[in-house]
Amino acid sequence: QVQLVESGGGLVQAGGSKRLSCAASGRGFSTYIIGWFRQAIGKEREFVAAISGGGVIKNYADSVKGRFTISRDNAKNTVYLQMNSLKPEDTAVYYCAAPSPGGSVYYTRIREYDSWGQGTQVTVSS
Q: Sorting pLDDT into bands at 50, 70 and 90, what band is 102?
């Protein structure tokens, strides 16, 4: 399994931007699909975006398409989530996660991911 640690959360005004990082330890990082999820207070955890091991294939939730961009730097064992045009409804704890090797970038369900970070809070003020 890969170990994941998120960072970059904080407070931002509506319309602003923020970049989250997901640092991984463990072997074979470039073989892992990495996904981002988020969970707002009182709501279920939901899929945000995922990226293939090589960084070519990306999948986004409809709610963030055109505003969020997922990318990765395999030399740094890090995946990024660039969030632009933030809205108050983007407020949540953001988690990165990885499915077992052989998974799909089109996995969007929590149970399809095996390794999780501890999360980082993003708060968007109106």
A: confident
CB 70 within 8 A of CB 81: yes
Q: How many CB atoms lie within 10 A of CB 108?
A: 17
**Residue the block writes with tokens 């997901």:** 22
Per 3-state DSSP, what percentage of the chain is helix, strand, and coil (rounded to 5)?
10, 45, 45
Q: In the structure encoding, which two tokens stand for residue 52, read together?
A: 């293939």
In angstroms, the CA 53 to CA 116 distance is 17
Q: Give tens-digit pLDDT for 30-79.
A: 999 999 999 999 999 999 999 999 999 999 999 999 999 999 999 999 99
- Phi, psi dihedrals of residue 112, rounded to the nearest 5°: -85, -5
Which one, of 96, 75, 73, lies nearest residue 9 by Cα? Answer: 96
